[in-house]
Amino acid sequence: MIQFEHLTYTYPGARLPALNDISLDLPEGQLILLIGPSGAGKSTLLRCLNGLVPHFSGGALLGNVRVKGLDPVAATPRILSRHVGFVFQDPEAQFVTDRVEDEIAFALENAAMPPQEMRVRVEETLDLLDLTPLRDRTLRQLSGGERQRVAIAAALALRPSILVLDEPTSQLDPKSAEDVLNALVRLNNDLGLTVILAEHRLERVLPFVDSVIYLPDASAGNGGAVLFDDPRAVMQHIDLTPPLVSVGKALGWQPLPLTIKEGLRYSRPWLAEHRRMADESPRHRRLIARGGQPYVQAHGVQVRYGRQEVLRGVDLALWPGEIVVMMGRNGAGKTTLLRSLVGLLRPQAGSIRVNGQDIAGREVADICQQVGYLPQDPNTLLFAESVREELLVTLRNHGMEIGDWRLGDSEIGGREGKTSRQGDKERGRQGEGERGERETISSLQSPNLQSPNLPISQSFVTSLLSRLGLLDKADAYPRDLSVGERQRVALASITVTRPGALLLDEPTRGLDYAAKRALERLLHEWRDDGMAILVVTHDVELAAAIADRVVLMSQGEVIAEGAPAEVMATSPLFAPQIARLFPETGWLTAEDVIKAKSKANSGGK
Amino acid sequence: MENQLNARDAAIASETEFFEKTQFPEQRALHSLAWATWIAAIVVILTLTRNPFYLALVIGAVAGVRWRCARVALENNGQQAMLLSPLRFGLLVVTTAALFNMAMVHVGTTVLFVLPAWIPLLGGAWTLEALVYGALNGVALAGLFAGFTVINRVVPVRSLLRLTPRAYYPVAVVISIAVTFVPTTLQQIQQIREAQAVRGHRLRGVRSWLPLVVPLLEGSMERSLQLAEAMVARGFASGADAQPRWPQMLVLAGFASIVAGWLMQLIWRQPTWGGVLLAAGGAALLVGLWRAGRGHPHTVYRPERWRGWDWVVVGGAVLAASVFLLPLFARSTIFYYPYPTLDWPDFDWRIGLAALGLIAPALG
Question: With an 8 Å Cβ cutoff, are A92 and B184 in contact?
Fold first, then answer.
């Protein structure tokens, strides 16, 4: 029904094609998953289906595309809109009106459908996605998942036979994401709608999909061919897979399990056979070392918005050299707590100390020199012309000029003289005059923190960039980079001051597996350098991979705290796949299992 | 500094909240065209008259309608009523206008007190007449404000836009998008401000706003592009088909002709020629709009129904406006002027009765 024949597409002004010689033949009525690393051209391929590429984007398209016998290039997106419904990443950016019903009716009004027929059509579409109770609401009153369902409904109003979704859940929390994915599965099952979905959260969709398209990175040369096959077959061929699949591949389970239910069929006998090994493996990983003074300490923090109590006396301490992961439902007060810790919100009661000093009455800018904070949308942080400039701006803001730094300066000439850092903000205000003065930090005295005690030098900035994998992007325009790279630039721009603590709010939103891995590695390195890190996330697999300690929040209170194996393994909501697969072993990630196995093997010999 | 920040946060939050709360009951009793007539009549009357009796009647009618709408909203979806807010605003406007007028206009015979003449502007006699006239201006202004709060509450922007001619439908869509963009943009400004504070940015001076502007512009740009893409994907016809240009030309010519005819009547005192030009221009306008509208086929989801009571509302509004516009009864009574000596205004009961036609929306 959908055919690509030797499709090659190049964006205007680009040297390399975004899509390189792609040939696919997609059958009707399937739920098809499109995966691949960021930058592989997933969005571009999807946009070819309804003619947005090349009609909206320009550029050069070679080869052939056929959608239900139509050529999207010759026919316009307007014609295709009757056959292909399209849903975008960000639910907010695709709404034209402000009410649910009006939004669904918009496409029909434009198609000049007679009012009587339109009435019926809107009614049916509302039912299809369970939106009837919400029909009169304004869109701003809806949750992210509800909004994305409205977007799907709006795309289906013209009754297309193909629904295309470009990472529809990347901006949503897991519960909302599940709502949306369930709706898609139902549409595919009940109506036989062809659904083509680009998605990073493989573990959620894999059990439901009929086939998978794997798109390798086009710019990486011939790093791999385009795959289109049964999900199990594709999973065999790619490296970055959900933990369940990784373990299945490592232990040689055939056919590969895609659901926990299937996995348990293999893991139960396997575990019985390897009982001793499981018992010997460390049960509570990463014991928490609590020596000395916590770097960030919150005590009895209370925050109210109007009458609503958001935080009811939260106690939390962050020690240098640990990663604490905070989880909890939406609205549990996690983000509010983070904002309080850096002074963006002033709690009505309780105290917050950073490095032993109370933050009450200090400016946000001042606190953030010691506590880096990465908000949910890293794009709001970025504005400069280049990555390098972003870092320099932060330093300038804090009065920590390092001169006109160019990449390689420190390696070449070593004229690393202009380092200054003002501890107090009065001197920071005087600004320019004090450039070149060298000073050590007196306000950040903390014996077990090595990095914050050093002045910021050009070589430090260079090494920060190389650690973040941004060295060759130093002169790139930040907003042109991929999601993962942009996030790392944002991270660089807040950690260039060498804060002793780092707070991250939902850092894995929209990241693919590779970018997630890079983030995990980075956080581990920073932790080992003695940074205190607090991560708020819904992503249980990330939590399992990085947490030294887990804190669960609900209704503005900390309800559980402890080692990840204790807190997460038993929770029905927050247990990672491996904990479900191997209960009572204390294993949380695929690495745990593989490590335990290789240890047992070498011990056995 | 922090308190300031929090105060601003609260302001932005309350603004966002305002947009969020603006929700419309499903069953709107009245057609938005009827509401449009009603508010037009109020604007006409309140700009014309300064007679306190007529002002009081009109504002009484507005208050009645407002009270009724609040009741309906409360019954429909348990929303808290909104009765008080224009009162506070009105009080502020009336006192300011009265004081300002009294301070600036030193005319009138009933002198309350005299400030020494060497004080610039304020010096001179402060009179009761100036006080009264200023207060009446303030009352009229507050009445207008109250009327518009009702409209804002009762008529969604979208249904007002549906009243625009079909030829301008794309323009109407753009405006409606702009309206829905406002709260999003407010939220974004807040987010960006925080993100920059996190990077050690301190707001001092105009130049320090640059880091806020760039992400905002870029963000809005990205959102607009994405919205445009989404609209194309949903079949929005923006210049998709080639349209004949002449209907648009006709509309333009019609406008020009109307302006010319009006000028002819007003300046060159040529009532007949002016009349002809006005009529021709009007006809060209209508034909042009109709023809251009045919090029933009679209239908309206759940069009509003025109009910019997809409006629009553329109009738009441037209009646009220016409007694103030046409020389029917004792029209001179509407131009009340307290100078030079304060006097009781005249009152024509027929005009007063007609003004009460504005209360129709509250009775339906």
Answer: yes
- Domain span at residue B277 reads 244-294
In total, how many domains does chain B have? Answer: 2
Distance from CA of B269 to the nearest CA of A (A): 47
Are β-strands A2-10 and A162-166 bridged in parallel, bridged antiparallel, or unpaired? unpaired
Residues B76 and B34 occupy one common structural domain:
yes
Q: Which of residues 333-362 of B touch A (CB under 8 A)?
A: none
Q: Which residues in chain B are contacts of A93 at CB distance < 8 A?
A: 222-223, 226-227, 230
B16 has pLDDT over 60: no
Q: Is B180 close to A136, i.e. CB distance below 8 A? A: no
Task: Write down the residue that tokens 């009895």 correspond to.
Answer: A300
Q: What is the pLDDT of residues A32-75, one digit of tens each?
A: 999 988 778 888 999 999 899 888 888 899 999 999 999 998 88
Instruction: Kindly state whether residue B209 falls inside one of the protein's structural domains.
Output: no
Q: Domain segments of chain A: what residues? A: 2-236
Q: Write the ipTM.
A: 0.79
Which superfamily does CATH assign the domain made up of A2-236 to?
P-loop containing nucleotide triphosphate hydrolases (3.40.50.300)
Ramachandran category for residue A292: left, alpha or beta (phi over 0 → left; psi -120 to 50 → alpha): left
Q: Give the nearest chain A residue to B201 (CA atoms).
A: A397
* Sign of the Cα pseudo-torsion (A84, A85, A88, A94, in order): positive
Of A78, A112, A365, the CB nearest to B202: A365
Q: Which residues pair with A353 in a beta bridge?
A: A297, A358
B77 plus B135 within the same structural domain: yes
Per the CB < 8 Å rule, is B1 touching A363?
yes
B302 and A119 in contact by Cβ < 8 A?
yes
